[in-house]
From TrEMBL:
Family as reported in the entry's similarity comment: Belongs to the MscS (TC 1.A.23) family.
Domain Mechanosensitive ion channel transmembrane helices 2/3: 122-162
Topological relation to the membrane, as annotated: Multi-pass membrane protein
Protein's organism: Nitrogeniibacter mangrovi
Name this protein carries in UniProt: Mechanosensitive ion channel family protein
Higher taxonomy: Bacteria, Pseudomonadati, Pseudomonadota, Betaproteobacteria, Rhodocyclales
Superkingdom, taxonomy of origin: Bacteria
Amino acid sequence: MAAAIVALSFFVLVSLRGLVRSRLRRLAERTALGWDDLLVDVLGQTQTWVLALVSLMLGLQSLALSEPVTTRLGQAVMALIFLQLGLWTSHGVGLVLRRRIEAREASDDGASATALAVAGFIIRLTLWSIVLILVLDQFGFNVTTLVASLGVGGVAVALAVQNILGDLFASLSIALDKPFVIGDFIVVGEVVGTVEHVGLKTTRIRALSGEQIVVANGDLLGSRIHNYKRLQERRVVFHFGVLYDTPADTLANIPALVREIVEQTEDTRFDRAHFQSFGASSLDFEVVYYVLTADYLRYMDVQQEINLALVRRFADRDIGFAFPTQTVHLASVPERLAGTTPSA
């Protein structure tokens, strides 16, 4: 009799699983909703061995068993139910996070994808911890003592791997705060390069010289990060000097000349130009302007265009660029050298 109940129960449960899945699949194909597809996938995780064990428990219930055995069977059935609920929930969480991670990776948002992966790990760890506690509680274990022991053990483990945990939470901070994302050109201390990957523990940066630099996430967040990818416009300051014998009227006209050159150059906005100071061997000017793009190559092209224009305009007006020189003034000439001329 018990064997018949086991066989019949298993047949009914397996048939019911197949029927529900097929009906839901047909319903999901008719709609553009995402939750029904998710439900079909989750129910697909109903394990055959769980159905077999439940059928076995139902068959044993028909036998004239002692009360302790009956109690244990009830506890076992509840444990199996908790286990199956855990499998459903874990698979559902995995599907949702996988879709979101694929969407983030498709948009090159690697930091968010990393955060979702970390969140998935934490959610699953929490979920199975709860399932384990519920199962143990069904069999009469002292869960309070177990939780306290796990707490003490967790503190010890956390102290042992605090650097790893620090980098792990730093990756979450990078993902949420987004000081940079994959593809950004950053400068961190002496590290200069393009972000290639943001992982759970480290971030990989491709340096200008070609090598890959691996930096711990905790070290990154503890440093000042210069993100040049988010540069909207570039402020440029440059200096030049002219000869000391340049007339004052010519010096007064130089700022207007520089302004004209900058304003005639595309992708620029002039700020100021001034006769700044008296240098050791030159009269020094300071010029400030903005390049209206973040492209470094365009900035260099603009600066080159301005420099060439300055050389041409100064040459047309007989304005000479200064270079380091020294003039020696002799207060007196020794008598033995007076009246002598250098030999040819």
